[in-house]
Hints:
mainly alpha; Yip1 domain-containing protein; transmembrane helix; 12 helices
Amino acid sequence: MAVCMARTRPPAPPPEAPLPTELLLSPRTFARKLGGTELLWWRYLGVVAVAGLLGGVAYALLVRHAAVFAAAASGSSAPTLATHLVNTLGTTFLTVLIFVLMWGLGRVGAGLAGRAAEVYAASFALMPPLYLLVIIWGLLTPAAAFLPDATVTGSLTGDPRTLERAALAQTAQTSAGFLLVVVTLLGTAAQFGFVYAAMRELTGQTGRAVLGTLLPGLPALAVQLIAVSPLVFAR
């Protein structure tokens, strides 16, 4: 009777995947839990989407002042909602592109055991709170802080592009603009630190973990630099 009951006992439920935030708290614990689950490359894609969307909102929120100023100063039509959506979705697209680079090159470097898709996607959990900080900071910053002085604009032509570049240069000098650049670049660099620790635990090989983080490192940072280039290179 006991044998029959043992045979009909339902199988143990599969282990639950760790939350993406666990990677930030303890990468090794995250990796051990993830290693016991089935590989699902789409498991944490929602985290990437949220990070990209908030990054786009933060960027569009700051540069909107430059677009409005250029339109008003040149007498052209004011930017529409479509303009702000393009700025938002452009940054979101670049975030997805960065994830694809991380996934592909991380997979080449760390191998299948490194589970690059899941680990890199989970690492984007670092970005939403940082972008929220930028959004809040930008909303608290007076609009006048994003606009160039009258003495500067007086020497400029009425070309909307020239006026917008001047306003972007002023935006880059604000604390909110500086914060966005720092969060975008240093936040991405910090992701690789968490990923390395997790991949080291998953693969059991330091070399594999190093390759899994170094190969996508420079391409990802280059794309992020492109994302904030209107602020970094504004003159």
